[in-house]
Structures are given as structure tokens and as C-alpha cells.
């Protein structure tokens, strides 16, 4: 049985953070209570703490843990699960805590061959990549296969801008598993790794006139995921598509300048919190019940229907490269600083909680 109180990293006055004792959350209908073992960090975590959260809201999104209270769902007590919640927005929901509550239909069962940190990394990054590729770009959904599909000159192409980012690593892998010729950009030091997880071609993102080069070398390219989505990268992706245009999915608000670059290119936004099934507001946008229910239903192919679990168990999906950090909940603010200073390249920061 779970205790009444737990430790959690919460937002504090003046957009600081603190570890404090709070009530263990009570799962609602369709939710389970999870004892958190490991969490991984995303830029959205420190951005919520620094700009959006109000005092006492529990921070953190990604997690791996075990079901402590099944609450009438099909997930048995003791089941090892991974996923994410919308941290930094609620006082009773966040992963940087000893316990959390989450909807059962948003969780992925973690296979035995994947450790807690890698399983945790599927959260924001894996779900974002899946939503972007298979909902927004409408790529061919990967099957529960044990082997990679063969590629040939007629295989469709996918551009992943910033393949060494957390989302990018998942997008490269999922794109390849789905039968796409994956083109990606990254620092040269990360090219070999990206090829090892499925990229067919890698480019130095700092290369002069790179969009024109990609467009020329891949004239049929019509789909792109921009894993940065700021600092002009949306426009770079739009210019990289082939002669017939196509669609660029972005993780931040579409930029007017990027939209105006090409009439034959659509800039489409994706926000992964919508798959969690809870209506919410984000900035000036509102995601109503109908919207989040539809997004949740689409993601269930990967969660409750088991695509993520199968691909991890088969070894086709490796997740993110992990950098283990010390300090548990108290050490997470140092991880925020590490990310803010631009020290993260390829690696995902992970903290052991329980």
C-alpha cells in the first residue's frame, strides 16, 4: 500500500524549484498509481519550471515504474510500465516524485530486456515522434515485426532535422522500422551513431546551403520532422523538401516566415500532451475533449496495443542514449542547468528515484 505522503520536486516562487512533502495522488477512473523508479529529462521540464509553472505544481514528464494500485484497470499491480504525464501543470500530477498517477491507456509495458532509464526515455520523445510521423505525416504504421523492411530506390523518404535530439533518435528509428529512407542532420560526431540506428544519409547541419543540397539530392522528399522548430529551422526544413513540396511537422508554433517560404509546403504543429486524453490549455490554444480523445485513440496502437513494447523487446527500437545522473530528486535542478547550458548532445539525462 502506498503511503499518504511522498517527496516531489515542485515549482516554487520566482520560478525556482524545491523538493517537498506532498500528498500521494489519488488515481481517478481509468488511472493507475505508479511507484516511480527512474525519470528522464526533457527541455519542456525546465521550461515549465522557468516560465510556466506556478508554485506547488509537480514537475516532470517521463518515467518508468511499477503499478502500485491498478484501480480497476487491466494493468495488474507490479506491472512495469513507462510513459509520460503533463508535468509542471498540476499539483497532483508529475513524474519527478516518488509516486504518480496516469491513465492506463497511455502507458507502455516495459519489456525485461530494456532497463528503466531507456524505458523512461520513450515518454515525451518516443510519443512525440510517433504522433508526428504516424498521425501528422500519416506515414505507414510500423507492424509488430522482428526484422527491418528492405529498402530500395523506390522506398519513401523522411527528413528528420536534428536526428541526435531525443525526439530525433526515436524518429530515425521509427521511420526506418516503418520502411522509410531516413535522411537526418546532426553534428558530424553523431553521424555514425545515427546510421547505426537507421539513418540512410546524414548531413552536417552547419553545412552551407544544406536545404538546397538535400532538395536536389532527394527530389521526391515530401515529409519532414523538425525536432528543433526554432531559430530558423522550420524554414530550413521547408526548403529541403523536393520539387513537389509536402509537409513539415514542427514541435513549436509554426513560424510565419516558414509558412510563407513555399506555397507547396504545409507547416503542421504537433503537441504530444494531447495524447494523454485530458482536455487542457497550452498558451492561447485549447485542446477539448474531442481532440484529446481522438489523439489518445491514435496513440493506443503504440501503448495499450503494444507496438512500443514489441519493438523494444525485438531489439529494433533502442530508445535514447542515456547519461545517468546522481542525486535523485534533489539532483534534477542540476540537470536543468546542464540542459540550459547546451551541454546535452545525443544523451538523455536520467535520474533514479526509487
TrEMBL record:
Pfam families referenced in this protein's UniProt entry, alphabetically: ADH_N (PF08240)
SMART domains: PKS_ER (SM00829)
Domain Enoyl reductase (ER), first and last residues per copy: 8-346
Top-rank taxon, per record: Eukaryota
GO molecular function, one term: oxidoreductase activity, acting on NAD(P)H
Protein's name in the database: Zinc-binding oxidoreductase
Organism: Ceraceosorus bombacis
